[in-house]
Design a protein that fits this description.
single chain
């Protein structure tokens, strides 16, 4: 099943529609926050005041502590990260560029919203985003990833080749005529 998700052209077509649908949701949400004046402080304060709990016991105490200790004191940073993160995740999914990376960061945001107690469409977005993430590059096959992923792979391979040198002996020491290596 995993191989089918990662290699099938039929799966690639299905994932093209799913990623565009999911990406559009992320993109419009982010754009609405960017153009509409977004302030996360009310949401974060509410998440601390009303944490997810069961029979009075807080289910995600570390997340609540993170909001209190990190997010609220740096709310101005989060006021930028959240909308731009949503917009960029959406853009990546819509055009199929760095699709698996966009899906991953979409999943991270979805789980943060779920930990804060926001249900909304997050479970649905987690399901679709998880499938797109599992499909990897195949989810972006009919998108920018078709051209971008081979280019990035070639770029990384060139970087590795330059790092190890032409003979691939960087850091191993050179051999003398008798085959003995001198280590630095």
């Amino acid at each position: 099943m995993i191989n089918w998700l990662r290699e099938s052209k039929i799966a690639a077509v299905i994932f093209a529609f799913l990623r565009i649908y999911l990406g559009w949701n992320w993109m419009t949400s982010g754009w609405g926050k960017i153009t509409g004046g977004f302030d996360a402080s009310g949401y974060l304060n509410n998440a601390v005041a009303n944490p997810v709990n069961k029979a009075g016991e807080v289910i995600y105490p570390t997340y609540t502590a993170f909001i209190e200790a990190v997010a609220l004191p740096n709310v101005k940073l989060f006021n930028v990260l959240v909308p731009w993160g949503e917009l960029l995740v959406g853009l990546g999914l819509v055009v199929g560029a760095l699709t698996a990376t966009a899906a991953f960061f979409g999943l991270v945001m979805n789980f943060m919203f779920l930990f804060a107690g926001t249900i909304s469409t997050n479970p649905w977005m987690v399901l679709i985003g998880g499938l797109i993430f599992i499909a990897g590059a195949n989810a972006g096959k009919f998108g920018v990833d078709f051209y971008l992923m081979p280019y990035l792979k070639n770029l990384i391979n060139q970087w590795k080749a330059n790092r190890t040198g032409a003979g691939g002996t960087a850091g191993k020491g050179a051999a003398d005529e008798e085959g003995n290596t001198a280590h630095a």
